[in-house]
Write a structure and sequence with these properties.
Length: about 350
């Protein structure tokens, strides 16, 4: 009896000693062909979390620990970046060509399916082509295209059998959001697409005096800039907008900026909001037509503007050319102007 007790106790101790405990780190190794860089850096939203030395033959090997499973970025330079899904306990191996960064990558080992799946999703997204062309399809063709896109993404998801549950959930959510975006954009395009009559604004305060409405510019193209004095990205576009206004000054186009400064950001005072706008226009020597929308946000709501800056092009007849036009800093804006004969 006593010997039996000691035997069971020994077995229990051995079982406890050999029981695996979750690793609090992961291993990452691989080889990059045609590599000329000396290090590979792993980055998250806060910045670099690990720098790994790359040997002369392109091989590398190291371990690291992550707080939670997530998509990170691996890079050898700012121009060479690729996503990777990391979690403690993984033993990831990477093979690829540094000259074909990301497009040649293949992961193997524990946890590899997650990263390979992300790369497959990116490739599929690139194969979608220009989203605007999808939005121009007739309704039946559009719905068939959406179903095809959804089926394709589901097929990619189902072809990877060892994905983390969090990755599966994330992928399904992203596909759902993409389909919802296309449907929303398509429905909006029915009323706000090229050639459709533009919603109008009326009696917006003009910095130079009086008031202006959209109809004030009939007979000319209008490049609208929806902005605010508190908006950093809006301010970044000002130098480019000035140059455009100068370059196209004698062309059949008006550059109209509409400030959306309002009371909420100015101590509850509409008077203070207007004063801030006027001071900004004066201090920055803004050119073109400078308007303030005041309490009227119906124009912005009609265009479903949820973020600024937003740029819109309207033709001489008051019809929409582009409800989400390129920014002044984008070269393709001038290409669009040229196509309009400007």
């Amino acid at each position: 009896m006593k010997q039996t007790f000691y035997l069971l106790l020994t077995v229990a101790i051995l079982t406890a000693c050999t029981k695996e405990t979750p690793q609090n780190y992961l291993s990452f190794s691989g080889k990059l062909e045609n590599n000329k860089d000396s290090t590979l850096t792993i980055v998250n939203n806060q910045g670099p979390i690990k720098t790994i030395k790359i040997n002369a033959d392109g091989t590398f090997k190291d371990t690291l620990s992550v707080k939670e499973a997530a998509i990170f970025t691996i890079q050898t330079s700012p121009a060479k970046r690729a996503p990777i899904y990391l979690n403690n306990g993984y033993d990831l191996k990477l093979s690829g060509d540094s000259e074909k960064f990301m497009t040649s990558f293949k992961f193997s080992g524990e946890g590899a399916d997650n990263s390979n799946f992300i790369l497959a999703q990116i490739e599929e997204s690139q194969n979608l082509g220009n989203p605007s062309l999808i939005l121009e399809l007739e309704e039946v063709a559009f719905q068939n295209k959406l179903k095809s896109i959804e089926n394709r993404y589901d097929s990619i998801l189902n072809s990877y059998k060892e994905l983390d549950s969090a990755m599966v959930s994330m992928a399904k959510q992203q596909t759902s959001q993409m389909i919802a975006y296309f449907n929303q954009a398509y429905n909006q395009n029915k009323t706000m697409g090229p050639g459709k009559p533009s919603p109008k604004f009326t009696d917006y305060v003009d910095y130079k005096g009086g008031k202006k409405s959209l109809d004030s510019f009939k007979g000319k193209y209008v490049y609208l800039d929806i902005w605010a004095t508190w908006c950093g990205p809006c301010i970044q576009q000002i130098p480019f907008l000035k140059e455009l206004e100068k370059e196209y000054h004698n062309k059949n186009i008006e550059f109209v900026s509409i400030s959306t400064d309002e009371a909420r950001r100015n101590g509850g005072s509409w008077e203070a909001a207007e004063k801030k706008w006027r001071n900004f226009v004066k201090d920055k020597s803004l050119t073109g037509v400078q308007l303030w929308s005041g309490k009227d946000f119906s124009f912005q709501q009609a265009y479903q503007i949820t973020g600024i800056p937003r740029f819109i092009i309207i033709d001489p007849n008051g019809n929409i050319v582009d409800a989400n036009a390129p920014r002044p800093s984008e070269p393709r804006l001038k290409e669009l102007f040229s196509s309009l004969g400007l």
